[in-house]
Design a protein that fits this description.
alpha+beta; 4-stranded antiparallel beta sheet; about 180 residues
Length: about 180
């Protein structure tokens, strides 16, 4: 037995050379995930981001997944690497996003503007590593809304001002994610 840290959650464990360096909790969660997923691991599947929000996740390894959407809920963002939890009770059998392990983008905002202008602004933002998604139109197709993920070092306002279009950028509070009992 060698003292080591779990490769997923970094808890101290006693590791044997012939085993995967996982703590008991991460090992059990990996087994539960293997039971729920089809025999061939899919590249993506749908999971609960929050009680009333679902979205796509990409499999990183048996106990970690990466978010493939910009969630509306607080505390999660595009490309976050997270653990998974068992499904909610009295709900559909989708797995639930758990603890955030790695974060690529620290900020997200809602971008509002005219439909044609929002598509141009989205292209400008994507060149500066600020992906956006979920363009919805309103006001009979005249206005559009999109979610934008970015880091605090990305000059989002400068990029949008360079386009010369009128817009409204409303930051979404990232905060800490509340962990609910399932």
């Amino acid at each position: 037995m060698i003292p080591m840290k779990c490769r997923i959650c970094k808890k101290p464990i006693d590791w044997e050379l012939d085993q995967d360096p996982l703590c008991e909790d991460c090992f059990r969660l990996g087994q539960a995930l293997a039971d729920i997923l089809p025999v061939k691991e899919p590249e993506r599947f749908c999971a609960h981001y929050a009680r009333h929000e679902t979205g796509w996740v990409e499999v990183v390894d048996p106990v970690r997944v990466r978010l493939a959407n910009i969630p509306n809920c607080t505390g999660l963002n595009l490309y976050d690497v997270v653990t998974l939890k068992p499904p909610y009770k009295n709900c559909c059998p989708r797995l639930v996003v758990g603890k955030v392990l790695e974060r690529k983008y620290r900020c997200k905002s809602i971008l509002l503007g005219l439909t044609d202008e929002v598509s141009v602004m989205r292209k400008q933002l994507e060149t500066a590593d600020a992906p956006s998604e979920g363009v919805d139109t309103f006001n009979r197709g005249l206005g559009a809304i999109a979610m934008v993920a970015y880091n605090d070092t990305t000059p989002v306002l400068d990029i949008l001002n360079e386009t010369g279009f009128g817009f409204d950028l409303r930051p979404v509070e990232m905060g800490r994610r509340r962990q609910r009992a399932v």
